[in-house]
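Whether sequence alone determines local backbone shape is best considered at the level of individual chains. When preparing material for the folding task, we compiled for one chain both its residues and its backbone structure tokens. The sequence in question and its structure tokens are set out directly beneath this paragraph.
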Amino acid sequence: MDSTIPARTRLVIGPNASLSGPQAVCVMAGISAVSLGIAGFLAWRGFWPVLAWAGLELAGLGAALWISIRRNAYREVLRFENDRLRVELGMLGRGVQSVCDLPRSSTRALLEPGATANESRRLLLSSGPQRIEIGRCLIEEEKVALQKRLKELLRSGWEHCSAEAAGTVSAET
């Protein structure tokens, strides 16, 4: 077995969360202060409908920030153990929502083209009839790099199983 790749490894896949919750609150507060300040001045000058539009604009921004922060909590955890691969899907703070165990020796990492020309490729873990899409939050280059790493980790599982089988055969003879 390749000694540079441990038999037990954990990969955590998540979106590139460049904005935290407290930062989103600061952004919302700053933009709200400027927007409502300008709208208030214009309303004082007689252009009162501006207040309603400023409120709608801020509601849209608030909704977009809330959705963005919620999506940043998504995680995929891949646990490579001696003879299996466990895929856990969930949200931070809410725990694991879905778990799938795959035999490490027969699992393959595949990149499939998207359904349309504009859709990015899909990274799949395939074992027999079972297929799981992972890395939906990754860009194309990250999916290619992850596929390469998955192939290395899955290969070490094959080598580990081969070494165990060889040890069993030699012990019996």
